[in-house]
Amino acid sequence: MIRCIVQKLLSARNVLIMTHLRPDGDALGSSFGLRQFLRDNGISAEVIIPMSMPNRYRSLCHGELAAVSREEFAAYDLAVTVDCANSERLGCGSELSLEYLKSGNFINIDHHKGNSLDVSCALLDPEAASACTIVAEILLQSGREISPQCATFLLSGMMTDTGCFCFANTNGRALRTAAAMTDCGADVEKIANNIFFNKELNQLKFESELTGEHLKTACNGKFAYMYIPETLLEKYHFDLKEDEGLIDIVRSVSGTVIAMLCHRRQDGFRVSLRSKNKSFPVGSIARQFGGGGHEMAAGCTIEAADFSTVEKIMLQCMENLFNA
To answer: Which of 156, 197, 234, 260 has the CA that lies 20 to 30 A from 163?
Structure first.
């Protein structure tokens, strides 16, 4: 399959790269890393990001397409999705993507279980720590040079999806691939300064009050969670697209096994879950409510009138999990 993907990529003339809505570091790293590789090899390529990127990624990733028309879709002879498990979450948010998907000129690269994008050319590997790991492995086997800029994109996604190689998805394969990107010239210092040490002052103040006033624990301290009230978002002018990493504050509480972060959305309440112990996976909980993700990191949306209802639901889920 890797040989097939390499052949399709290098024989294309104009490639469209798509990822999931509200893209995180892995989605952006794999998208822009692949774009850079294609451009380095004289192939026209563009990435669709249907919303402004989080501040931490703006200096690394440049160039966005807000939408693609039917005429623009026709200009691409190949489309690639990375780090996206289903059509509902495709970043272009258009029926045109499904129409193109069915055309056969489509490659699907992902590391989520239960990927439902029905395409003939797909590399789906739930054992991979990140989509960037898979993309890097493909490019390493292409026989072409991987430029320092391309390697920097890919390493940034590996680092964010593994928590700088601290999360349970870190394995020898992830570390070896990261080392290969470093050997290709990936700028670790640039990644660290732009992604991990680059918070606006209002975000630090927001996190301080959020933690001080809204952090709760239950199940003898094994479950820790925070709800982000809309009033706090308004007070600090905090944009939820910058929320990547917030749940790690909850996860860092001593004694915590499962962490939850929740905020209101138009269609209900968005729930993000993380587990620190493989004996207590959270993927099945998210799937109960139509969500998905990984066994140790998952999310869902719960329709409810208020957070207290969501809180009761999740507390019951945690009691059932810990007492099973």
So the answer is: 234
User: Which residue range is the domain that position 87 belongs to?
Assistant: 2-196
CATH of residue 266's domain is 3.10.310.30
| DSSP reduced 3-state for 110 | strand
Residue labelled with tokens 């190949």: 78
CB burial of 147-163 (b: ≥16 within 10 Å; e: otherwise) equals bebbbbbbbbbbbbbbb
Residue with tokens 């719960």: 302
b/e 250-278 (16+ beta carbons within 10 angstroms → b): bbeeeebbbbbbbbbeeebbbbbbbbbee
- C-alpha neighbours within 13 Å on the C-beta side of residue 237: 3
Which pLDDT score, from 0 to 100, does residue 114 have? Answer: 78
Claim to verify: residue 178 and residue 289 sit in the same structural domain: no
Q: Do 49 and 164 reside in the same domain of the chain?
A: yes
Q: What average pLDDT score do residues 157-167 get?
A: 95
166 plus 246 within the same structural domain: no
Residue with tokens 């690639």: 80
What confidence category does residue 66 fall into, taking pLDDT thresholds of 50, 70 and 90?
A: low
In this prediction, residue 104 has a pLDDT band, given cuts at 50, 70 and 90, of low
93 and 150 fall within a common domain: yes
Q: What is the mean pLDDT of residues 217-228?
A: 98
Q: Which two tokens stand for residue 88?
A: 């509902």
Asked whether residue 20 carries a pLDDT value surpassing 90, the answer given is no
Reduce the DSSP state of residue 3 to 3 states and report it: helix
Question: Closest by alpha carbon to 136, among 166, 161, 167, 101?
Answer: 161
